[in-house]
Each structure stands twice: as C-alpha cells, then as structure tokens.
Amino acid sequence: MKANDKVDAARVDLLLSELRLSGIKLVWSALAATADKEGWPAARFLAALAEQELADRGQRRFARHLAEARLPPGKTLAAFDFDAVPMISKAQVQALAAGDAWLEKGANLLVFGPPGVGKSHLAAALGLALIENGWRVLFARTTDLVQRLQVARRDLTLEAAIDKLDKYHLLVLDDLAYVAKDQAETSVLFELISARYERRSLLITANQPFGEWGKIFPDQAMTLAAVDRLVHHATIFEMNVDSYRRKAALKKAAGPGRPSARATIKTSS
Length: 269
Fold this sequence. Notes:
By secondary structure, the chain is an alpha/beta fold. The chain has helices at 3-18, 22-38, 42-69, 90-98, 119-132, 142-154, 158-164, 183-196, 220-231, 244-254; strands spanning 108-112, 137-141, 170-174, 201-206, 234-238. It starts with a helix and ends in a 15-residue tail after the last helix.
C-alpha cells in the first residue's frame, strides 16, 4: 500500500469512528479491495457498505435488548415440549412470536396451570422469539417487580417508574400468584396493570385461575377491575397437565427396569 493510500485509509477509519459507523469500519477496506479488483460501480460498493452497517446495528441491537430482557437462559420454543401440553397450539404460539398481531394493540397473554408444567419456559421462549423479531421485552418475577415498584412509591417516583416500563412492548410477570396479599403490594400491581391497559402488553403466568384471585388482591372490586383489564384483549392458555418435574422425579425414583407409575417419591416429615 502506498504512503498516500495509508493516509487515506487512516483518515477513513477516523471518519467512520467519528460517525459511529462501526459496521462499515469493520469491512470497508476488504470490500474496497474487492470492488477495485472486480470493477464494481460506486452504487454497488455503497450498497454493500450500507447493508453491512444495517446488519451490524441489528446484531448489536439484539444483543442489547436480550441483555436488558433478563430472560432465564436456555428457554427456547425449539426446546419446549408441545407434545406434553396438547391443549397449546404450536402454530398459535409461533404466530404470537411474530408480535405484530397483538403487541401493536397492547393485547395480553395469560398462561394458567399448576407448578411444573412449563409456564415460565413458554413465557421466556416467547420473549426470546419476540426479541429476535425486533420487539423489546422484560421478564420479571412478579414479587421482584412489585417490590421495586413499592420502593418507587415510597420515594414518590412510582409514576416515573411505571412510565420507564413503557419502553418494553411486552412485560412478562412470572408467578403472579406468589404476590403476598398485602394492600401496598397489590395496589402497585393494580396500578401497573391499569397503566398498561390497551397501551402495552402483559404476559402473565399464574398457578391460580381467576376464581382464586381473591387471594392476590385485597378486595373484590380490585380483583374484578384487574381481571377486566387483563382479559379485555387477551389470549388465554390453560396448561392443565401433570407437572413435568414430578414426572421426571417419578422416573428417577423408579430406577432402571421398574415402572415409573408404581414408584413413589419419599418426602421428609
């Protein structure tokens, strides 16, 4: 490379850094060499650079959104056992993973079922698929998020804290039923539900059906109001199957050559 060429290359690198075009900076030199060798027209060279920049920005955006989502690791739709929950349509879940048919409308997804049937796995896997499709997601245990909102209320910043959650197209509240029946906790939860109503989507997993939500909210009026807001625009999945964790424990307890159906799990007294 000639001295002048080296100066020009260094200048290009500096300019690309100043413009924050990191994707182009990674490849422009190699692409320029290819373009010179093959006689590309200027438009083709510029298009190739622009495509590289867009791809690089997309990768960095995905990595950033994945980190902020706080999803439990290893939960994907490919790893979800749809055969174990035949009442859940794989095609419907894949359609929900696109996001545009419901997240744009602020609709909700409610997933009910006993512990150990894969509710959290399904919620996290959907969250991952949505992030891959360009949406922003936050996954949180309901108790953890409620505690953070309580702190915000004590600091007189609850409205601002809820507003900050608006940047997420989908807020996953895992294990809703584990919220203690406490006026302070359930009131901030109700305010969150009300604030997102018809604006931003919620995905809620819960062990108890609606009929038992009186154990979560302290009074009937609040229970009815919360349920009304959640179900108004909602898809509801009921995963009424045996716990896969219990099945795995039974299989392990059975040992080789022994039918798992006859095995028992010892419990401490």
